Amino acid sequence: MTSSQFLLAVILVMAQLGAMCGWTSPYLARLSRPDAELHLDPEEASWVASLINVGRFLGAFLGSGCTHLWGSKHALLHTLVPMALGWALILCAKDALMLYLARVSLGLGMGMAFCCFPLYIGEIAVPRIRGAIVTVAFCGSPFGNVVASVIGAYTSMIVSSCVFLVPCLVAIALFWWLPDSPHHLVKRGDLEGARLAIDWYRNGVGVDEELKAVQAFVQSGDGASSAFKNFLGQLSQPYIRKAICMSMMLFMYMQLSGLNSVLFYMENILREGQVTIIEPALTVILVSVVGAITALASINLMDKCGRRVLIMTSGCIITLSMLILGASFVLLDHDYDPAYIQSFVVFSLFLFMIGFVAGLMPVPSAVLSELFPANVKCAAACLACLTGALFAFGASKAYQPLVSLIGEGYVFFIHALLMSSVIPFVLLYMPETKGKSLQEIQDILSKKS
Question: Which segments cross the bilayer (predicted)?
Fold first, then answer.
C-alpha cells in the first residue's frame, strides 16, 4: 500500500455517508406509496428520515472516546462496524421497526465518522494542501449520493444494501493496514513509530522537522489528556471557548441550510412542486451528479480562496436557492400555472447542491481539524458533532409537521433567513486558517482572544 491510498479509505467512508443520505429520498418516496410491500405512513417516514441523526448524536460520543483511546485512524476503522450493521438490518427489514434500528445504526457510524475524520486529516495532512485533502475526501459523499440515487430509483432495498456493504468491507481492509497518526503515536511515547508514520504519510519529505512540530503541538497541551474533565478546565481560556463556538456554529449552519429537507425529501419536493418536464426520480439523480461534479471542480478552492470566502459564497448561493424554491411554492399555492414554475423548482435544487457541496459541506470539517490543541480536540470534535446531530435531527423531524402547518414555501424561506446570517458570522468571528500549521492557528486564536 502506498501513502496516497489513505485517501481511498477515507473517500470510501465518506461515500457511505453520502449513500446513507441519498438512500432516503428514493426509498421514502417508494415506501410511502399505498401499494408498497413495506408501507410507511407519513409519521413513520419522518422517523426513518430523522432517526439517523439520533444515532449520529450517540456516535459523536463514541467517536470521541475511540479517538482518545485508540487514535483517529483506529476510530475511523471502528465507524465501519455500525455502518455495515445498518445495511445488514435494511437487507433483512420486514417492518418499520427494523428500518428504525437500521437508520440508528447507520447514524451511529455517521456520527463517529464526522467526529474522527477531521481529526485524522488534520493530523496527517500537509498544511498547504489540508483543505484540498478534506475536499477530495468529501468527494466521496456526493458520489455515494449519486450511487444511492441511481440504485434507489431502479432496484430493491435488498440489492442496494448488498451494494453498500461491499465498500464497507473494502474500507475495513484498507484501514487495517494504515499506520496510526503521528500525533497519537507521540502521545503514547512511541517516537520511532511516529517517525515511521510521518515517513509513510509524507513520502519521506521533511520527516525530522514534522516530528518536532508534532511533539511541540502535543506538548502544547501541558501534558494534559483529552479527558472531558480536563477539557472543562480548558474552557477558562478565551481562545478555546471561541474555537468551540466557531466550530459548533459552522456545524449548525450546515444542518440548517436546508440540507436535510432537500436530501431526504427531494423526490417528494419535486412531486409537490408539480414538476413534469423531467421525471422526479431522474432529477434526484441529476442533482446528485451535479453535486459530484462540483466536488471535483472545487478540490483546490479551499486552499486558493480560503475558508472565509468559500463559506460566505456558499451561504449566498444557498440563500438564493432557498428563496427561489420558497417563492416557487408560494406562487403554486396562489394558483400560478405550474408549467411556468416547475423550471424554477428544478433550478433551485441544482443551485442548492452546487452551493452546498462547494463550501458548506467541506469547510466545517476542515476548520474543525485545525482549531484545537491536542489536549482538547477530541472533546471539542465531540461537541461540534453533537451540535450537528442535534440540529440535523430537529431539521429533518420538523420538516413534515412544518410543511403541514405553514406550507413548503415558508419552510424554505426560514432556511434562507437562517443562511443569510452566515456572512456577518464569518466576517466578525472566523479567522482565516488557509495554509497555516496547527500550531500557527493556535497562536492566532490565542492572540485574538
Answer: 75-91, 97-120, 132-151, 157-178, 243-265, 277-297, 309-332, 344-363, 375-395, 410-430
Do both 172 and 228 map to the same domain?
Answer: no
330-358 tens-digit pLDDT: 999 998 999 999 999 999 999 999 999 99
> Could you give the CA distance from residue 74 to residue 78 in angstroms, rounded to a whole number?
6
Instruction: Tell me the one-letter amino acid at 45.
Output: A
| Per-residue confidence (pLDDT) for residue 226, from 0 to 100 | 43
Count how many domains the chain has. 2
The predicted structure's pLDDT at residue 221: 55
| Cβ-based neighbours of 66, under 8 Å, separated by 6 or more | 74, 75, 78, 112, 116
Q: Which of 439, 441, 415, 440 is nearest to 430 (CA)?
A: 441
Tell me what pLDDT residue 224 has. 43
Nearest to 114 by CA among 138, 131, 90: 138
pTM equals 0.79
Q: Same structural domain for residues 36 and 155?
A: yes
Q: What pLDDT, in 10s, does the model give residues 221-278? A: 544 444 555 666 667 778 888 888 999 999 999 999 999 889 888 988 999 999 999 9
Domain with residue 144: its CATH number is 1.20.1250.20
173, 66: one domain = yes
Transcribe 144-166 into DSSP letters.
HHHHHHHHHHHS-HHHHHHHHHH
Single residue among 163, 178, 193 that ends a domain in this structure: 178
- pLDDT for 313 equals 95
Helix (H) or strand (E) segment spanning residue 342: helix 338-355
The DSSP call for residue 337 is -
- Digit-coded pLDDT (tens) for 70-96: 888 889 999 999 999 999 999 999 899
Q: Which of 24, 8, 7 is nearest to 106 (CA)?
A: 24
The per-residue b/e assignment along 180-193, b for 16 or more CB within 10 angstroms, e otherwise, is bbbbbbbbeeeeeb
The residue type found at 316 is: C
Q: Domain residues for 414?
A: 222-448
Q: Are residues 166 and 247 located together in one domain of the fold? A: no
93 and 170 fall within a common domain: yes
Indicate whether 172 and 247 sit together in one domain.
no
Nearest Cα to 4, choosing from 112, 125, 118?
125
The answer to whether the Cα torsion of 305, 217, 384, 382 is positive or negative is: positive
243 and 341 share one domain: yes
Domain assignment of residue 274, yes or no? yes
> Do 251 and 385 fall into the same domain?
yes
In one letter, which amino acid is 411?
Answer: V
What pLDDT, on the 0 to 100 scale, is given for residue 99?
Answer: 95
